[in-house]
């Protein structure tokens, strides 16, 4: 029995000495100094750009009318530059790309599914009418083929 007690004491001493402490010792300088100070990112110089979805084209409603009679609208596609049309315009999306038709029946095709913007040109108020509501700024149209073919969202 005495041998068992001596062996257990020796094993406990070896075991305790082989493990490192789970928390730093009080004499460790890094533990007493506290956390290292963190640098904060610089403050933004401008307001963030926020877009709000104002229209979603799904199911049988896959066209949207934009603008009021007499307005001039610019279709801004990143690669093609801008092209002016007379409002109101009708926007639709097919598998091959966008179709924009103005009030005179002139059609403009924007190839592919990449987003584009409609901006108002001229006039005193920079508002675009979508349905029965008016929105400030440009209207961005984004294809949503991930939801269903021909679906798109309009954001302002």
Question: What's the gist of this structure?
Answer:
The model is unreliable at 4-14 (pLDDT under 50). The chain has helices at 2-18, 29-32; strands at 53-57, 63-66, 72-77, 81-86, 89-94, 97-101, 107-111, 116-121, 127-130, 133-136, 139-143, 152-155.
Keywords for this structure?
156 residues; 2 helices; mainly beta; four-stranded antiparallel beta sheet
**Total strand count, please?**
12
Largest sheet: 6 strands, antiparallel
Number of helices: 2
Over all CA atoms, what is the radius of gyration? Answer: 33 Å
Roughly what is the average pLDDT, rounded to an integer?
75
β-strand percent reads 35-45%
Element string (H = helix, E = strand): HHEEEEEEEEEEEE
Structural class: mainly beta
Report how far apart the termini are: 85 Å
Rough outline: globular
In spatial order, strands of the major sheet run: 1-12-11-8-3-4
Poorly predicted regions are 4-14
Helix content range:
10-25%
SSE blueprint:
Layout: H1 2-18, H2 29-32, E1 53-57, E2 63-66, E3 72-77, E4 81-86, E5 89-94, E6 97-101, E7 107-111, E8 116-121, E9 127-130, E10 133-136, E11 139-143, E12 152-155
Antiparallel strand pairs: 1-12, 2-5, 3-4, 3-8, 5-6, 6-7, 8-11, 9-10, 11-12
Characterise the protein shown here.
The chain has 156 residues and is mostly beta strands. Helices cover 13% and strands 38% of the residues. The protein has a domain at 53-155. The protein has helices spanning 2-18, 29-32; strands at residues 53-57, 63-66, 72-77, 81-86, 89-94, 97-101, 107-111, 116-121, 127-130, 133-136, 139-143, 152-155. It has a six-stranded antiparallel beta sheet with strand order 1-12-11-8-3-4, with no helix packed on it. The protein has a four-stranded antiparallel beta sheet with strand order 2-5-6-7, with no helix packed on it. A two-stranded antiparallel ribbon has the order 9-10. A hairpin with a 2-residue loop joins strand 9 (127-130) and strand 10. It starts with a helix and ends with a strand.
